[in-house]
Amino acid sequence: MSPYSPVRPSPIAGSWYPANPAALEREVSGYIKHAAIPSLPGEVLGLIAPHAGYFYSGATAGYAYRCVEDMSFDLCAVFSPLHDYYPYDFITSAHEFYATPFGMIKIDQDIVSICSKNLQQMTGIPLQHIANDREHSLEIQLPFLQTALNSPFSLFPIMVRTHEPGLLQSAAQAFANVLKDKKVLLIASTDLSHFYDQKTANAYDAVMLQHIASFSPQGVLEAERTGKGFACGAGAVALMLWTCQALGGKIVTLLNHSTSADASGDTGRVVGYGAAAVTR
């Protein structure tokens, strides 16, 4: 018998976003409806969205999820960082479901298992399973997916701790080999620069967003490594971009940039947020 519940309960509903389903639906739907996006050059394959509390970054996240409003996908692969310490490069959930105020989302443990085997064959590293985690950056995307998409989906959750390019490229190919025949949406969860003044944050964020717009996962990692731009989910973004490339992704379209100052009014110590879409 498993020593933990099959359902991962939300540790952030009621703080990072509303716990009341009706209030949550109003807020998330409002962000999506108010996002004006350009015409996209092809089929949406991937999204980049921020992961702060909705008060701060929900409006920018709305731009990403407007791109898939009323669409359906069989599987959503959410790549995020992991803010707690675990000594592993790639981590997934040991639970069977994620819970949000909108209900439960089933984790496709068959996909997880096959991807783990592929990853181990290509890198010698399997996916590590953890339970009862408190990682907000993956969960924060789920109510947006539940609101934007027009049918239920299963989940492939991956938390990324490595920034090593070769390892991330191999992982991307390992995952793409499994996902290539699926109707899948890939989401990378990241915020941008942290706790600079507004002018400095905008400069750092412009560098990181340019690498994203250039469809350069290597550039994303190099900007983070050299301190020329910042993304707390740089590894997750790079993994998502390389996976999208392996699945035929061609173009990244930037959709929105904001900082926490837009919500708080405090321009002295801000966090940056960006939204983008990958198409093929």
SSE layout:
Layout: E1 7-8, H1 21-33, E2 44-49, H2 54-66, E3 75-80, E4 90-93, E5 97-100, E6 103-106, H3 109-123, E7 128-130, H4 136-139, H5 142-148, E8 154-160, H6 165-179, E9 184-189, E10 194-196, H7 198-213, H8 217-226, H9 234-246, E11 251-259, H10 261-264, E12 270-279
Parallel strand pairs: 1-5, 2-9, 3-8, 3-9, 4-7
Antiparallel strand pairs: 2-12, 4-8, 5-6, 10-12, 11-12
Helix pairs in contact: 1-2, 1-5, 3-6, 6-9, 7-8, 8-9
Characterise this structure.
The protein has 280 residues and is α/β, with parallel strands linked by helices. It has one domain: LigB-like (Protocatechuate 4,5-dioxygenase, Chain B). It has 10 helices and 12 strands. The protein has helices at 21-33, 54-66, 109-123, 136-139, 142-148, 165-179, 198-213, 217-226, 234-246, 261-264; strands at 7-8, 44-49, 75-80, 90-93, 97-100, 103-106, 128-130, 154-160, 184-189, 194-196, 251-259, 270-279. The strands form 2 sheets. Strands 2, 3, 4, 7, 8, 9, 10, 11 and 12 form a 9-stranded mixed beta sheet that branches. The protein is globular, with a radius of gyration of 17 Å. The relative contact order is 0.21.
